[in-house]
């Protein structure tokens, strides 16, 4: 379909860190599979978050990050680092009430690497979770643990910070060690930091759990290199084989990657995960190997290469996030609302046709749109004309860079997939106040304008996925969605 230059074909995509996608000094535009020198940004997390960062900066960083991710997903040329830095500069200077300087050379006055945003920035926001939740998240390495899963072949999904990322614990090696792994439906490579891991900015890969011959007697190295570039960072290393256990299902000698170089957004001690598991289709894999769910299925450990997600919302305080392999967890959704639609993406992403979009119950008239459903993206990134139309209907506005809604908005948005309408909780459309001290003013919206993919192609992340049960099936090349059961 719309995927053009193989040269840009995705290197895999990743997670959008609302909390801190930053463009550091060493960042630069990234042709495909360069030498293992990484790319973009740092970011993340919650500890030691400066309290004086403006939420607008956070949002611009986020938008920049999402733009790059979408560009890679759609095979188009991503915005240059220079352009992204310019956007950050502009935003910074607008905030300061000063005109933006022209940005002749990247890396001038503004060191984006120092800007981290955290939960502090969401104070006053309607979705602000209780203090207890925040403290819990902060104390546990930025993670809020999930309850035990409610069906077989499942893992709880811990929530990073304020619905930033979703992380499960698996076991690898002999003896088996626990690894915290980010679960991403928008990429297709699985890797863990290696015992000899170095940060691309120097030094070690932080306070993580690593894998290698010293810690695992069943570890078998290979000389095959791999490299994955995400919207927010990159890793490089070699393929290996080892024992991998996922929810008690054991893969013998599974082939995956150990990263010997990680960019700071993976290597930093403040990053609350040790590796990443891509759960798109292996046609996207840079490692050219089966994904874990495909291997579980081909080894007969699960009936089909199905991955199902219950993406939880921190403010609900239910901690019921879960990923299920080989089937769906029928306790998480209303059975007669389940719809299954074709995956329309040729590359291996999960992309479904949106039949209709309704705003406050009325049809918006938008047709022919598709949604790339990505657990690794936090908000929704929509071409500006569509974003504008949606925001007008919702009572908000967009400028060229950002959409906002009144923080008091109760407007509703719903997408129809497979003939069934899925409503988004109005509060999910309110990310955080534009002015931190004015929680009833304007809020940065959960829809942001970017024309990087095809004009009809929307990148739809957790803002939507928190409102539906989401399942993918490699064998049938299909996507299923269902309404969530009442807690
Ligand atoms: C889970 O697995 C156990 C043991 O195989 C089985 O007895 C039980 O019925 C399964 N539960 C569900 C919900 O499938
Ligand atoms: C490193 O991680 C361990 C376990 O996650 C934790 O107990 C320890 O305090 C951490 N150390 C530092 C220096 O962050
Ligand atoms: C895994 O690989 C090791 C080393 O190559 C080999 O000895 C072992 O038999 C393999 N195990 C399985 C189950 O294939
Ligand atoms: C990936 O694997 C397939 C089959 O195993 C092979 O035909 C193809 O050349 C491989 N591609 C790369 C880039 O290694
Ligand atoms: C396979 O996908 C199609 C849509 O592409 C759907 O209609 C069908 O129900 C799916 N089959 C299964 C077994 O899920
Ligand atoms: C928001 O809208 C819903 C559905 O229309 C309604 O039930 C609810 O009472 C509204 N909440 C507020 C605060 O207006």
What would you note in describing this structure?
The chain is α+β, with helices and mostly antiparallel strands and 487 residues long. The protein has two domains: 6-325, Acid Proteases (Cathepsin D, subunit A, domain 1, Beta Barrel), CATH 2.40.70.10; 330-482, Acid Proteases (Cathepsin D, subunit A, domain 1). Helix content is 14%, strand content 31%. It has seven helices and 28 strands. A six-stranded mixed beta barrel has the order 4-5-10-6-9-8. A six-stranded antiparallel β-sheet has the order 2-12-11-27-28-13. A hairpin with a 2-residue loop joins strand 7 (220-230) and strand 8 (233-246). The longest helix is centred in the N-terminal third of the chain and has 19 residues, at 55-73. The protein is globular, with a radius of gyration of 21 Å. It starts with 54 loop residues before the first helix and ends in a 5-residue tail after the last strand. Bound molecules: 2-acetamido-2-deoxy-beta-D-glucopyranose (6 copies). Residues 166-482 form the Peptidase A1 domain. Pfam families: Asp. Belongs to the peptidase A1 family. This is Peptidase A1 domain-containing protein.
């Amino acid at each position: 379909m719309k995927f053009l230059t193989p040269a840009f074909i995705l290197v895999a995509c990743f997670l959008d860190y609302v909390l801190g996608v930053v463009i550091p000094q060493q960042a630069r535009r990234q042709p495909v599979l360069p030498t293992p020198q990484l790319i973009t940004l740092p970011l993340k997390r919650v500890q030691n978050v400066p309290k004086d960062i403006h939420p607008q900066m956070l949002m611009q960083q986020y938008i920049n990050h999402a733009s790059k991710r979408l560009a890679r997903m759609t095979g188009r040329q991503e915005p240059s680092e220079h352009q992204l830095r310019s956007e950050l500069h502009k935003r910074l200077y607008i905030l300061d009430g000063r005109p933006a300087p022209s940005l002749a050379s990247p890396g001038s006055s503004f060191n984006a690497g120092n800007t981290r945003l955290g939960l502090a920035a969401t104070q006053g926001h309607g979705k602000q979770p209780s203090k207890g939740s925040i403290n819990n998240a902060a104390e546990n390495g930025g993670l809020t643990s999930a309850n035990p899963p409610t069906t077989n072949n499942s893992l709880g999904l811990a929530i990073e910070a304020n619905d930033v990322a979703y992380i499960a614990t698996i076991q690898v090696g002999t003896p088996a060690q626990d690894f915290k792994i980010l679960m991403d439906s928008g990429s297709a490579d699985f890797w863990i930091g290696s015992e000899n891991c170095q940060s691309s900015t120097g030094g070690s890969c932080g306070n993580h759990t690593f894998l290698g011959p010293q810690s695992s007697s069943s570890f078998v190295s290979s000389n095959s290199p791999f490299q994955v570039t995400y919207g927010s960072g990159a890793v490089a290393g070699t393929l290996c084989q080892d024992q991998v256990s996922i929810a008690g299902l054991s893969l013998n000698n599974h082939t995956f990657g150990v990263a010997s170089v990680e960019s700071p957004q993976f290597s930093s001690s403040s990053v609350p995960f040790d590796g990443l598991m891509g759960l798109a289709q292996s046609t996207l894999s840079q490692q050219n190997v089966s994904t874990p769910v495909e291997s579980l299925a081909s080894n007969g450990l699960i009936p089909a290469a199905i991955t199902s997600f219950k993406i939880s919302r921190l403010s609900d305080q239910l901690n019921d996030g879960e990923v299920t392999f080989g089937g769906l967890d029928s306790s998480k959704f209303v059975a007669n609302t389940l719809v299954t639609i074709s995956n329309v993406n040729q590359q291996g992403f999960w992309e479904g046709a949106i039949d209709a979009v309704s705003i406050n119950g009325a049809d918006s008239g938008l047709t022919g749109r598709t949604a790339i459903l990505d657990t690794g993206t936090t908000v929704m990134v929509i071409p500006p004309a569509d974003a504008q139309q949606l925001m007008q209907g919702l009572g908000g506005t967009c400028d060229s860079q950002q959409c906002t809604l009144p923080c008091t908005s109760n407007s509703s948005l719903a997408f129809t997939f497979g003939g069934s309408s899925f409503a988004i909780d109005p509060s999910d459309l309110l990310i955080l106040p534009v002015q931190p001290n004015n929680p009833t003013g304007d809020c940065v919206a959960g829809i942001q304008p970017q024309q990087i993919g095809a004009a009809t192609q929307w990148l739809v992340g957790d803002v939507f996925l928190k409102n539906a049960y989401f399942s993918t099936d490699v064998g049938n090349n299909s996507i299923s969605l269902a309404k969530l059961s009442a807690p």
